[in-house]
Design a protein that fits this description.
The chain is of the alpha+beta class. The protein contains two helices and four strands; from the N terminus they run E-E-E-H-E-H. 20% of the residues lie in helices and 16% in strands.
Length: 122
């Protein structure tokens, strides 16, 4: 999804953290091992932001639904997701300020699939 927008693939980081049932509370109650699994997905957009329009947000959630539903909804899991949009100016990778979106420097990062020193990246 994100590489089709021109972003380097390594900008996408996924953490899978399984929680013991006794540490998950939904509506104040824990789930039993016989209930449907519950999956919570947290997505943080930093490199780019969606335009601040209802149509853009609906489009973004529709794309996320197409990605997530085969793995969650279609398997009968209960799940929830949300997207945070973090201020890009507060972001660094390996001590470097990421290049401007769409810049030649970002294209180099994309081709190399890693952060690299560039002029202005301090």
């Amino acid at each position: 999804m994100y590489t089709t927008l021109g972003l380097p693939a390594f900008y996408v980081v996924v953490h899978f953290t399984e929680m013991p049932l006794e540490n998950v509370f939904i509506g104040g109650a824990t789930r039993s091992a016989t209930e449907k699994p519950f999956v919570r997905v947290v997505i943080t957009h930093i490199a780019i932001r969606a335009p601040d329009t209802d149509a853009a947000y609906r489009g973004a959630t529709a794309r996320l639904d197409r990605i997530l539903n085969p793995h969650l909804l279609n398997k009968g899991y209960d799940f929830e997701y949300h997207v945070d949009e973090t201020e890009r100016r507060l972001w660094k990778i390996n001590g470097l300020v990421p290049p401007r979106s769409g810049s030649e420097e970002e294209k180099v990062w994309g081709r190399e699939n890693r952060a690299g020193v560039y002029e202005g990246g301090d």
